[in-house]
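Good morning C.,

I know you're traveling, so I'll keep this short. The sequence:
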Amino acid sequence: MRQATFEPTLPLDPDSMPWIPAGPGKWFRPLRFTSDGWSELIRLEPGCTMTMHRHTGEAHAINVAGTREIFGTGELVGPGNYVYEPAGTVDGWRAIGDEPCVVHIKVTGSIEYLGRNGQVIESVNAESRRARYLDWCREHGVRPAEQILGRPAVTGGRRRRRR
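The tokens, ready to paste straight into the viewer:
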């Protein structure tokens, strides 16, 4: 019988964290970086858009506040609504209404932002998003949150220990 080990959960208070600029009317708050993806809060001001993009892995999104309209389908996603996007999904959306739209998103793989002709104009993955966060922290004299950066490597189900 395996013995249970208990490790700290390392709670994070996103409300105490600053929003990091990601473009006109767009900000993000990283929550966690892993080897295969990341989790973050995205905030868009009313009228701002998340340009068309393709997911190379799946994405899970929950609207925390505000409403967004999905391009192409016209679907409205409001507070508390959940959206699953399988790998290969191409979508874009706009924040609508009178308040900012805040979305908690968990992404695996990359997000490829697309130009007018469908060409990839930018690709974002966990590594590039993590680098952007660390650059912002360095530029603003902010200590990166350990909870966001992840835990030490695990091998064979156990943590590596220094000798």
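Safe travels,
E.
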